[in-house]
């Protein structure tokens, strides 16, 4: 999909026959509507997978947001090996973040200002580490019996 040039290719490699830019009240960003020609879709070998049987006009259409290409590029990046290796480090910290949020009130800021907020989070982190240290100490002492 190439939104700036208002073109899109379908899985069969056919070019969209229509493109409209839609500005709706209440929606901050424009939407883009692409549709493929009924003549192309009628003879397409992929139409059973591509077209909904509930559609009144048997042709493919799609509506996407202005940032669709960015989102797609990000999704493609997420599939790369380099990205997935980097994300392993992130997944290691997610359990701690979750514990800080659910067990130590990290999901809600109790104070105003960055300094006090930082203090709250540092105390929560220290409390979390102390609890883990105590739990590990108990576990180690049971192992040594
Ligand atoms: S049915 Fe139409 S839109 Fe879908 S793959 Fe075939 S030609 Fe493309």
Protein architecture, described:
The chain has 145 residues and is mainly alpha-helical. It folds into 2 domains: 18-74, no CATH class; 80-143, no CATH class. The chain has 5 helices and 3 strands. It has a 3-stranded antiparallel β-sheet, with no helix packed on it. It is elongated and about 75 Å long. The relative contact order is 0.09. The structure holds iron/sulfur cluster. The site of iron/sulfur cluster has 13 residues, from helix 1 and helix 2.
Strand sequence of the main sheet, in spatial order? 1-2-3
Helix content, binned percent: 40-55%
Task: Report the C-alpha radius of gyration, rounded.
Answer: 26 Å
Give the overall form. Answer: elongated
Main sheet attributes: strand count, strand direction, barrel closure = 3 strands, antiparallel
**Helical element count?**
5
């Amino acid at each position: 999909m190439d939104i700036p040039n208002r073109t899109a290719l379908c899985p069969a490699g056919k070019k969209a026959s229509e493109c409209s830019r839609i500005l709706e009240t209440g929606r901050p960003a424009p939407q883009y509507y692409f549709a493929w020609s009924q003549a192309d879709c009628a003879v397409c070998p992929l139409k059973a997978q591509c077209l909904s049987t509930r559609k009144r006009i048997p042709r493919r259409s799609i509506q996407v947001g202005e940032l669709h290409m960015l989102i797609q590029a990000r999704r493609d990046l997420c599939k790369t090996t380099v990205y997935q290796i980097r994300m392993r480090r992130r997944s290691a910290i997610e359990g701690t973040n979750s514990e800080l949020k659910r067990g130590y009130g990290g999901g809600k800021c109790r104070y105003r200002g960055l300094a006090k907020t930082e203090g709250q989070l540092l105390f929560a982190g220290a409390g979390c580490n102390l609890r883990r240290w105590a739990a590990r100490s108990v576990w180690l002492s049971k192992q040594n019996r």
